[in-house]
Amino acid sequence: MMTMKQEHFINGQWVVGTGKAFQSIDPADASLVWEAKAAGPEQVDAALKAARKAFPAWANSSLEYRLDIIKRFAEKVKENTDQLATLISRETGKPFWETKTEVATTIGKVGISEKSYHERTGTKATAMPAIGGSNVSAHLRHRPHGVVAVFGPYNFPAHLPNGHIVPALIAGNTIVLKPSEQTPAVSDLIIQLWQEAGLPEGVLNLVQGEKETSIAL
Questions:
Q1: Taking the alpha carbons of 216, 92, 89, 108 in that order, is the dihedral positive or negative?
Q2: Pairwise CA distance, residues 117 & 204, whole Å
Q3: pLDDT mean for each 10 residues of the chain (217 residues)
Q4: Most C-beta atoms within 10 A of its C-beta, which of 97, 103, 167, 212?
Q5: Where are the domains of the chain?
Q6: What was the pLDDT predicted at 124?
């Protein structure tokens, strides 16, 4: 059982927020699930700078290296299925049997994303009409965008952000994640699992908070 950090994850470090305090409350019994101070604007900026700094090395790493880490993350999620499903249940009010299916979908996204990456990327060359007696060809190449901001929703707090995070990481992008203020505990645990999987510093950053944090990002 992993302990909630109740902090933000910036450049590989857990840090206390500088914004206003907010809470996650279990809608079933009104019990407290998670409580912390939101990330301030300067912390959002620090997360973006960390992601930009980490981008070149991550983008230039081999696909095999990135996939090894991402697959380890899937293994960590599987090992912590019950805890993650419990947090989803407590923060969304869904029954445990249903939230376990969300965890399974979160794990399954890794294999689906790897397959899609291979199907949709790679270099494609097309012969074009000769110009001035010279052979001409058009080449299509894929490259990562850079830093990606992912905003997580309340209704599927593990599966839907994961559906953007995993493909983005496979492609070599770096990320700043801002979950719903109603489901911070789920992302707290998920980031810990990414950390345990060996994701390098700055590649995936977490800023928690309400409207002000989202606007800053």
A1: negative
A2: 19
A3: 93 97 96 97 98 98 98 98 98 97 98 92 80 78 93 97 98 98 98 98 98 96
A4: 103
A5: 50-116+146-217
A6: 80
Q: Residue 160 and residue 168: Cα distance in Å, rounded?
A: 13
Per the DSSP assignment, residues forming a β-bridge with 177 are 150, 206
- Global confidence as pTM: 0.92
Here the tokens at position 33 are 């699930």
User: Is the torsion defined by CA of 199, 58, 164, 7 positive or negative?
Assistant: positive
Residue 72: CB atoms within 10 A of its CB come to 17
**String of DSSP letters for 61-109:** S-HHHHHHHHHHHHHHHHHTHHHHHHHHHHHH---HHHHHHHHHHHHHH
Closest Cα to residue 201, out of 161, 174, 171, 163? 174
Q: What is the CATH number assigned to the segment(s) 50-116+146-217?
A: 3.40.605.10
